Amino acid sequence: MTTTEARPTAEVGNPRRRKEDARLVTGRTRWTDNIVLPGMLHLAMVRSPFAHARITAIDTEAARAATGVIAVLTGADIADEQGALPNAWAIVPEQKAPVHPSMAVDHVAFAGEIVAMVVARNAAEANDAADLIDVDYEELPPVLDLRQAATDSSLAHPDLGTNVSAVWSFDSASAGTGGDVEAAITAARDGGILIEKEIRQQRLIPAFMEPRSIVVDPTPEQMTVWSSTQVPHFVKIFIALVLGIPESKIRVIAPDVGGGFGGKLQFTPEEVLTVIAARRTGKPCKYSESRSESLMAAHHGRDQWQKLTLAATNDGDVTGLKVELIADMGAYLGLVTSAIPLLGAFMYNGIYKFPSYHLKCTNVFTNKTWTDAYRGAGRPEATFAIERLMDELAAKVGADALAIRERNWIKHEEFPFATVAGLKYDSGNYEAATAKARELFRYDELRAEQLKRRESGDPVQLGIGVSTYTEMCGLAPSRWLGSMGYVGGGWEHASIRMLPTGKVEVITGTSPHGQGHETAWSQIVADRLGVGFDDIEVLHGDTQVAPRGLDTYGSRSLAVGGMAVLAAADRVIEKAKPIAAQLLEANVDDLEFSGGRYGVRGTESGMTMAELAFAVFQGHKLDGSAEGCLDADATLDPEDFSFPHGTHLCAVEVDTETGATSIRSYVSVDDVGVVVNPMIVEGQVHGGLAQGIAQALFEEAVHDESGTLVSGSFVEYLVPSSADLPSFTTARTETPSTTNQLGVKGVGEAGTIASTPAVVNAIVDAVRHLGVSDVPMPCTPYRVWKALQEGAQS
Amino acid sequence: MTRITVKVDGSSFTDEVEPRTLLVHYLREQLGKTGTVVGCDTSNCGSCTVHLDGRSVKSCSLFAVQADGHEVTTIEGLAANGQLHPMQQAFHENHALQCGYCTPGMIMQSLDLIADNPDPSEDDVRLGLEGNLCRCTGYQNIVKAVRAAAAAGGAQ
């Protein structure tokens, strides 16, 4: 594949300012918590302060008697009604999972689990009454360490009999995708390079800015649910399945949704309980969580321990990688909790073509908030591992970090490439992205400065971190999902309605929450149908308006949903053809569609889409031989994943006396295929970088020895501020994907996946000559300083 | 209940409020000013930032009764005659928002910042917005927008 900057069309490739902004910058927003309905009641939750306990008694008498209280419900009250929360992905048929109630009945498995709720006239009264509920607990020993959990020495769910949910393995020799990793390791031990390394992927919290909120309006005809969710279509299906409400009587609306990052890819206890409260009281009910509740009870992310063994020749050719990992599920399985490590399992080989690979993943339960998708979902963990290892390999060989990568990566002429993990990479040009990054970063100059500082013993040392990443995007071919044990599909749906006045409605099954689909989908349709960008309205996030869809996560929206929009537009053009032929009194074979107009070849005669739409609306001149409707639907199941990639370079200054680190420059060159809106893409990269850097330097969900979340507010959970981050230099190369019509790849997670190893590699690179070969994340000044002290002693 | 009179976005309101009612809840729930949002419960995130007598405050850190006799401007009071305020326009032009949840607070704080410093450097902006968290943008385009608005004389 070659790198191209071609711009074939007018709107695609244009940095259009976003349609969404008009309401967002003026405060005319539609957040769920803004919704007020006549007679609406408010919910407050009582949550367990203990990580692991048995509930022995709950006294709700005082709460029931409090002013404004309509109802108080405990787990025992709704035990027969609440069903169990679903996990949608069995990674092995024998996967074990505890029953996951929305409200604990007699056993709590993490601090923050809901044990009772109050329904009251307003939020203040609900909260006041919740404080009056007296719960007696018998504390049980909490299981908090994932490695200890794997030994079953103490159980997070005594009834389950084990903490191990599933063990999943991949071996390239048995899969037929490569050789035997043990042979590679033996060979490396005998006369090559063997690198063994343990990595702790700390637990993170997605920390979307809008706390979750749910409003339910229960009329006899329909249960209308507003939820700040990424997945309204999932929520609809699961309300039906879990609560036994006919799916045809449920409408779920995701209005304006304030961020998600995977954190709102969930079907939640709070959603179930708000529906139950509304159903029981017959009144509209609202629940809006506080930030403290959100940090404690909305699902967390990452949290893995990895043991890595990399085998290589003395020249630095990688010959094999063995990964043993333990992944902390937390207390329960959410929608796709168990599959998060799996989404990484196919990416540990990164952009490299080494010949053998083995992975064994053990999923364990602990008494912590359950984990699930967080931006990158499995792929950051894999990318961090391989990119840290490549730096260690470079150090062992004594080679440049970029050179060792180039030696091992897939060359641009080798695509499509079947990887050792069994995926087919569609396209890429690692050489082009790296060359561009190197130049923008002034790599050679910085290396020279680094050397100078080392030689002079400068107390502030300079490190250069490299991360060359790829990721699987565009979740996902339904066949693949089915083969991996997921209950759902990976298709996406779109409809286009051609209105009589020449305006166009585009209905998408994707559910944006900051990604700008209203703008980008308009650009795609404007080009295809030849109608004006401003004449297009994109509708989404309401199961009554967009009944078919699988929502937004996994960098799938453009590569799957955008392509469904394109396919629907093509069908509109197709449907318009016989109608245009009738109206123009021409043979269909003489028609050509261009610039939004069907013309009769070789004549001036023709009709625009707007004229056709109006003629169809009138119907006067249609002879009945073709359906009098231009509207079209399309469902698109992706042919395969797409694989964006890029090269990120980070320069970090490390104060060797204090351990303080400072990012001096950061260059990211990303290749996300063809770009619909470069402004939006750049914004996604910026935000992704910030979250990846946050993992490297700041964020960690910390529990104390009793299992209480210590980092339970924004005072302790350090989401970086503007003052904590540098400006980034971002650029792109463009290698079209070969798995979809537009050649797009996906960008939502790229920055997060790539940046964490770039930063940590830079820190280690700055102080490697002082005996440091690793710093655990987040690399706080104390941890860097400690690593320097240990390095000095060794 | 305590009676308060507050001028909000140019209109005067007299209301009975509980002494414990936070200004942000008064704005949202009693006045329907839902453009101002709540993002945390520790005054860290700045999503609820409004102006009180022309200076930025986190409206979760004030009781409604403390606003008695004062003038409050929210994000909803900026645009006039269908025209975006220059700071709102700058956020739009520079793609300084994604999900938009932090945006009202960010814009109100940015106005305060350039009122103090009409020509802020990048570092000035980064420090001046330290109390307002954004999870989507990585701040780069917010910094760009604030400096663009400042350069265009957007303080008024």
UniProtKB/TrEMBL annotation, chain A:
Domain Aldehyde oxidase/xanthine dehydrogenase a/b hammerhead: 26-141
GO molecular function, one term: oxidoreductase activity
Keywords: Molybdenum, Oxidoreductase
Annotated stretches, region: Disordered: 1-21
Keyword Phosphoprotein: no
Cofactor: Mo-molybdopterin cytosine dinucleotide
UniProt entry tagged with the keyword RNA-binding: no
PANTHER family in alphabetical order: ALDEHYDE OXIDASE 1-RELATED (PTHR11908:SF132), XANTHINE DEHYDROGENASE (PTHR11908)
Descriptive protein name: Xanthine dehydrogenase family protein molybdopterin-binding subunit
Species, as recorded: Kribbella capetownensis
TrEMBL record, chain B:
UniProt keyword annotation of Oxidoreductase present: yes
Keyword hit for Transcription: no
TM region positions: none
GO terms assigned for molecular function: 2 iron, 2 sulfur cluster binding; metal ion binding; oxidoreductase activity
Swiss-Prot/TrEMBL keywords: 2Fe-2S, Iron, Iron-sulfur, Metal-binding, Oxidoreductase
Pathway(s) this gene product operates in, as recorded in its UniProt entry: Alkaloid degradation; nicotine degradation
Official protein name in the record: (2Fe-2S)-binding protein
Source species taxonomy: Bacteria, Bacillati, Actinomycetota, Actinomycetes, Propionibacteriales
